[in-house]
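[job 0412] stage=complex_fold ligand=guanosine-5'-diphosphate status=START
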Amino acid sequence: MFEALNERLSDVFDRITGRGVLTEADVDTALREVRVALLEADVALPVVKDFIAHARERATGEEVIRSVKPADQVIKIVYDGLVEMLGGEEPVPFNLNASPPVVVLMAGLQGSGKTTTSAKLALRLSKTERKKVLMASLDTRRPAAMEQLATLGQQIEVATLPIVQGQSAVEITRRALQSAKLQGFDVLILDTAGRTTVDEALMAEAAEIASISRPTETLLVADSLTGQDAVRTAKAFHERLPLTGLILTRADGDGRGGAILSMRSVTGLPVKFLGSGEKIDALDVFDARRVAGRILGQGDIVALVEKAAEELDQAKAEKMARKLARGKFDLDDLAGQLEQMKRMGGLQGIMGLLPGVGKLKGQMAAAGVDDRMISRQQAIISSMTKAERAKPEILNASRKRRIAAGAGADVAEINRLLKQHRQMADAVKAMSKGGGKGFAQMARMMGG
Ligand code: GDP
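[job 0412] stage=complex_fold status=DONE, emitting structure tokens
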């Protein structure tokens, strides 16, 4: 998997590792080479552009972690970008939460591996999830396809709906639903008919079957080896069928990975499984971190940088705590707090973590305390000089006017920010002395 892409990226990183310093030009060159590597791997152009823009932003904006080599930090940035491109850290679970029989609809072009994958999924659900699974082939035009599913069913000891000649796909669907209900199956997998190309008849039939069977999961099976064609197919299907996810087959033979890397960004759909071989158990749950790790092949470095970043956060938190304990809280500290709030998903995110804050949340919203306000406050603080941030009391009228112009704010806003900061600084001072009183003060302030 991903051998060609892995090799190209390794070359890029070989050229920068070992260097003590990296200039902005070095990082630029490396990212340009990553761009070429991704395009050669047949990743969709808009996806590549987005990726590079983000990576560049991070590479220039990211705080330098002194204990980490610059090249390693670049590798980590590329890794993070790949994970994001692939759909984020947490795999999207396969949904079985519906009253049985849970219907799983399998769609895709002929030859994509749909029938084999239906059986792979059935095996997985019956073995690891201990579900009672029934499979039914709706491919009325190709009797061989029906028999193929029956044979696979026997092989993995999963029931298949008995074949009745001459029934339409809709009739088979109704029969399958009824059998599944009557015989107490947990899951019904419907293997729809495939064609060699996306056509209207295929789409209409799949849409009708979906409306009859109300699937919990509607999965498109696509061949990863077909690259951007697979992406186009997925888009076409998704326009007619409310897909819930994708399964990409033949990942085992896919050296480039263009389809796998583009799918999520282009279609918005999560890849749920990868087909990783001809054997019937060769189906892997899709995990963006694992895939990104395979593509980069730099697992040790990624782990190292992650650890260093954690240590840095820890050190910063400790430094802040020491400062607060001394009763100090300047505008830089406020800026740090604002940044942290943003990283934790904004105020709403933080408030969500605190118990019993429903009322407070409402009050804050009424007072106009929202994430946009955090950004404005950040803009104001960043328009100040270092001396002003450390000693807000030197801010006279002319300084305030200058800052207001720089931040696109008005002086009243700056005064509000300063007042809020003063109250917080007082509270911090009180906390460092007496504890309880300061906390009460803090809580009052937040309540407006
Ligand atoms: P369908 O026409 O879409 O139902 O395709 P089939 O299920 O009949 O699969 C076509 C061929 O692809 C078969 O020979 C399968 O063994 C093979 N195949 C399916 N999935 C994979 C996979 O993940 N890896 C590999 N190497 N072969 C696969």
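The pocket of guanosine-5'-diphosphate is lined by residues 108, 110-117, 194, 249-250, 252-253, 275-278, 282 (CB under 6 Å).
[job 0412] exit 0
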